[in-house]
From TrEMBL:
SUPFAM superfamilies: Acyl-CoA N-acyltransferases (Nat). Gene3D superfamilies: 3.40.630.30. Pfam families: FemAB_like. InterPro entries: Acyl_CoA_acyltransferase, FemAB-like. This is Uncharacterized protein.
Length: 387
């Protein structure tokens, strides 16, 4: 390693100036210093919740040249790249799978850079440092494995060159019309098949007839009362699925204070009474759908609040991409297209690593067939749109 460069493990982001970190993070809202700090200080992602921050940083003197968000995990919750079967295989072999090292944005299945460095040399140093950490060769944090989730494809290839195994998944993203973008939601619908277009119009008309309307609130406009309503909806969604929420009101209130320009809260109202809410994140190129909840069931309300209103917002603001969240084949019929996601994995146990490597090869073949089937089922007409 170049003697002028120094790797440091950071346990608290307060040790890094906000500007220095955000210069590396760019305009990705999920990589901002403020986002990670809100997760940590609200204890949503902390040692207490099984997410112990061990961020790898690369310094040249007092200048931050690179960073890799990294956690020591004692479970696999909140990741969205599922490795429960791997953990079970370790257990059946009498080997501990936890702790493991994970580079990811907690509770956020959004593709983004993980190797926050401008040069290939610096990115390679960050990967090497993470692998040494997992092997217990740096500060004694030995772990069963190192995983990096929701990478851009080029970073995944860099990690593969470092000896990591790659895994693919599928999400569904909406894309605005190339060039100037769609002029209206109706113009977007015109490109779809008649049956799909008719169904969406019917869904939206039923809500309109139920006297439900919508309000878009930026992070600057949303009040503490709005956030309290939102967290009630968010918590109810988890309770309805017999699960425990990952995030709390303090986290969202911190975001509303520290990065309001990156937040869009969509409220569904009947009269003046809010009945549902969806939270989205924004940057210069994309809208990211993240969390939603409702106080009552209304047919079609989920699709409208989470998808159609977000698409309307993207069209109105010339936003080119809407990532609607993890999974969900139902999005395909509503104008979302399949997109591959990438993760990278290194496992210390040679026999189990070999077995999982074989599994990943088979899984990749099945995924290829699945994506082909999805592409054959896209809802858009082959011919040019007509009225």
């Amino acid at each position: 390693m170049n003697s002028e460069l120094d790797i440091q493990i950071i346990h608290c982001l307060d040790d890094i100036p906000v500007t220095a970190w955000n210069t590396l993070a760019g305009d990705d809202p999920f990589l901002r210093h403020e986002f990670f700090s809100a997760l940590h200080k609200s204890e949503c992602a902390s040692e207490k919740s099984g997410w112990s921050p061990k961020f790898i940083t690369l310094w040249e003197g007092s200048t931050l040249r690179g960073a890799l968000p990294l956690y020591v995990k004692t479970h696999s919750y909140g990741e969205y790249v599922f490795d429960w079967a791997w953990a079970d295989a370790y257990r059946r072999c009498g080997v501990s799978y936890y702790p493991k090292l994970l580079s990811a944005v907690p509770f956020s299945p959004v593709t983004g850079r993980r190797l926050l460095a401008r040069t290939a040399e610096h990115r390679a140093l960050l990967v090497m440092a993470a692998l040494k950490l997992a092997q217990g060769k740096n500060a004694g944090y030995g772990a069963s494995s190192f995983h990096c989730l929701f990478l851009p494809e080029d970073e995944a290839e860099e990690m593969a060159r470092a000896g990591m195994m790659l895994r693919q998944g599928v999400q569904f993203h909406w894309k605005n019309q190339a060039g100037t973008g769609f002029e209206s939601f109706e113009e977007f619908l015109k490109g779809m098949s008649h049956s799909k277009r008719k169904k969406i119009r019917q869904e939206r008309r039923k809500l309109h007839e139920s006297d439900i309307h919508f309000q878009w609130l930026t992070g600057h406009e949303a009040t503490p009362d709005h956030w309290r309503f939102f967290i009630d909806c968010y918590n109810k969604t988890y309770r309805d699925h017999y699960s425990s929420p990952y995030l709390n009101l303090e986290f969202f209130l911190r975001l509303s204070q520290s990065m309001p320009e990156n937040l869009l809260l969509i409220l569904a109202l009947r009269g003046n009474q809010p009945i549902a809410a969806a939270l989205n994140f924004i940057n210069s190129r994309a809208l990211y759908g993240r969390y939603w909840g409702t106080q009552e069931f209304v047919s079609g309300l989920h699709f409208e609040t989470c998808y159609y209103q977000a698409i309307e917002f993207c069209i109105a603001h010339r936003i080119s991409l809407f990532e609607g969240g993890a999974q969900g084949e139902h999005k395909l019929a509503r104008g979302f297209l399949p997109v591959r996601t990438w993760s990278a994995h290194w496992l210390a146990h040679p026999q189990l690593a070999a077995a999982i490597g074989n599994y990943l090869q088979t899984e990749a073949q099945h995924l290829d067939h699945y994506v082909d089937e999805l592409n054959d089922s896209i809802p858009f007409r082959k011919a040019a749109p007509s009225s």
